[in-house]
Design goal:
Elements (H helix, E strand, L loop, with lengths): L3 E3 L8 E16 L10 E2 L7 E5 L6 H11 L4 E6 L2 H9 L4 E5 H4 L6 E7 L4 E9 L6 H17 L1
Parallel strand pairs: 3-7, 4-5, 4-6
Antiparallel strand pairs: 1-8, 2-6, 2-7, 2-8
Length: 155
């Protein structure tokens, strides 16, 4: 394996992680949803609204649960999914609002709006992970440069 893409919180000895982009959590909901009319959303604003999120223990769920707890809000979780794409389509169907990384939310179908969640703002670094001291092939380096440009343009 030449490299990996991930969101490491820490790296093991002999491993390097270079940040491609800093991503944050956003709310995705239909344009008709009451929260869609707001430009800035706090986690506390989610109280009383049906929420679709990933299952406990999956990916971003610990971040979501921690942010809700620190904001003092009990999320009304109506669906727990394995894949973020499922959450997007459930939100598009009007089943609730979904919380997801902005890098994924930018692929939301027409009719959905994306709002950054604040207080607290949660972010994580999307990184290229490599073995320390190992050179990448020209093809791998070109692919990483392309990802850096694309993700930077989206951020």
């Amino acid at each position: 394996v030449d490299f990996g893409i991930g969101t490491p919180e820490r790296t093991a000895a002999g491993i390097d992680a270079q940040t491609l982009v800093r991503d944050h959590l956003s709310l995705v909901c239909p344009g008709s949803h009451p929260l869609a009319q707001r430009k800035a959303l706090k986690w506390a604003d989610l109280a009383g609204h049906p929420v679709i999120t990933v299952r406990p223990g999956y990916g971003i769920r610990p971040l979501i649960d921690g942010a809700a707890a620190s904001a003092g809000v009990q999320l009304e979780v109506v669906n727990e999914v394995t894949f973020l794409s499922t959450a997007l389509w459930m939100a598009a169907s009007g089943m609730g609002a979904s919380i997801m990384p902005s890098a994924f939310a930018r692929h939301a179908p027409a009719g959905l709006v994306v709002r950054k969640l604040r207080a607290p703002v949660l972010s994580r670094d999307i990184c290229v992970v490599t073995r320390r001291g190992r050179s990448l092939s020209p093809a791998c380096a070109a692919f990483i440069a392309l990802m850096r440009r694309e993700l930077g343009a989206a951020g």
